[in-house]
Design brief:
By secondary structure, this protein is mainly alpha-helical. Helix content is about 45%, strand content about 0%. It has helices spanning about 30-40, 70-85, 90-95, 100-110, 120-125, 130-140. It starts with about 30 loop residues before the first helix and ends with a helix. About 5% of the residues are buried.
């Protein structure tokens, strides 16, 4: 419904309005006209006939995300990669070679570059390597 702004009247203020002579049982209320004047139009498919769904429109069911990676492990790897990206050595290599970050990390792994990937960071990345059973589950 659209908002209808009104102010409350005190008992002694009613005498000066049309409510003084109004008798509740004698008034015929045209509900369709009230809906046309004050009702909001609903979008198709929201509430059936005329928007009288009895409340809020139904929400569509959310599709559950399927993930084959442990969220905590994924977060730990993300933090490790962010730390590697923010290191001075990686920033220097990125400035000189104009390579992408992940290409620099791949090159550092293949060339065993300890300036970019020290033993601790390499061990942190190795924790994220999937096991054979996990790879098989994804490939099936």
């Amino acid at each position: 419904m659209k908002q209808l702004h009104w102010t409350k009247l005190r008992g002694n203020q009613i005498e000066t309005t049309l409510f003084r002579t109004l008798k509740p049982n004698e008034v015929a209320i045209e509900y369709t006209e009230l809906e046309d004047l004050f009702g909001q139009a609903t979008k198709e498919g929201e509430g059936g006939e005329g928007g009288s769904s009895g409340g809020k429109p139904k929400k569509e069911a959310k599709v559950a995300k399927v993930s084959h990676v442990n969220p905590k492990l994924l977060q730990a790897i993300g933090i490790t990669l962010k730390q590697i990206m923010n290191s001075k050595d990686v920033k220097a290599v990125m400035a000189k070679s104009k390579k992408e970050f992940f290409q620099i990390v791949c090159d550092a792994i293949l060339s065993l570059d300890t300036n970019i990937l020290d033993v601790d960071r390499l061990n942190q990345l190795l924790q994220g390597v999937p096991e054979e059973t996990e790879v098989e589950a994804i490939n099936v």
